[in-house]
């Protein structure tokens, strides 16, 4: 990554945000490739014994949401002291992380959507059903257009998980052992909206999405608006923590 000293002061926050994205994708490229290979190979192995009715890629893409939250929280927790020690201001770090979140979510969202469409084509070629486990019943994802619409929501969902991870990561650095407790209010909100959007349980603790059943009939448009508002609120909260965060001296 380009050294801070070689970046133009007015624009370095944006260069760093793009740099974080590029370096993160390069660092995790083998993880992403492994998820791609496993998600596409597993159905062919399972088909030797059972009929294929459920999308394997749906679970891989859902796992990517947790992965995104861990990436954002981990990056922030590690980068706060290092970046500020090299001369980056807290506001610049916050803006850099915001751009990182948008670009990362778009990149992983594009991979998730493309993977879902490719999987639909492979399932159709093999004569398999392409569906998801929705409320204890197999629900077909639908036509190619419906599959594309289904996958088009992934960038927004990844952005929400990124903002949630960033908030918990910043809080964990700011308040040390107590910051992670923000998971208690954040997780049910994020998980429930995810649950309501697809009318199914996302990959993870089912209890955390208990509100999804209550808001699932509000309509997809309203749920998307709530996801956008949630991403903005989480990002704003993480920003407020970051710009006022103290640096702790290293312990000997």
UniProtKB/TrEMBL annotation:
The keyword Transmembrane applies. The chain crosses the membrane at residues 27-46, 66-85, 97-118, 156-173, 180-198, 218-242. This is Uncharacterized protein. Keywords: Membrane, Transmembrane, Transmembrane helix.
């Amino acid at each position: 990554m380009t050294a801070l000293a070689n970046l133009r002061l007015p624009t370095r926050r944006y260069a760093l945000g793009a740099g974080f994205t590029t370096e993160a994708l390069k660092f995790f490229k083998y993880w992403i490739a492994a998820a791609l290979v496993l998600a596409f190979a597993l159905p062919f192995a399972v088909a030797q014994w059972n009929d294929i009715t459920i999308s394997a890629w749906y679970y891989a893409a859902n796992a990517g949401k947790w992965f995104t939250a861990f990436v954002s929280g981990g990056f922030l927790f590690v980068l706060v002291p290092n970046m500020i020690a090299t001369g980056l201001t807290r506001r610049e770090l916050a803006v850099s992380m915001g751009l990182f979140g948008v670009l990362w979510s778009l990149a992983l969202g594009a991979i998730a959507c493309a993977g879902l469409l490719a999987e639909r084509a492979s399932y159709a070629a093999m004569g398999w059903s392409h569906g998801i486990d929705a409320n204890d019943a197999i629900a077909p994802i639908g036509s190619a257009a419906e599959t594309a619409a289904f996958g088009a929501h992934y960038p927004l969902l990844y952005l929400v998980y990124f903002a949630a991870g960033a908030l918990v990561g910043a809080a964990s650095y700011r308040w040390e052992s107590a910051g992670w407790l923000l998971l208690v209010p954040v997780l049910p909100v994020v998980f429930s909206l995810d649950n309501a959007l697809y009318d199914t349980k996302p990959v993870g603790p089912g209890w955390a999405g208990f509100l999804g059943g209550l808001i699932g009939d509000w309509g997809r448009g309203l749920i998307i608006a709530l996801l956008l508002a949630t991403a903005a609120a989480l990002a704003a909260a993480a920003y407020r923590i970051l710009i006022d965060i103290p640096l702790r001296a290293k312990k000997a």
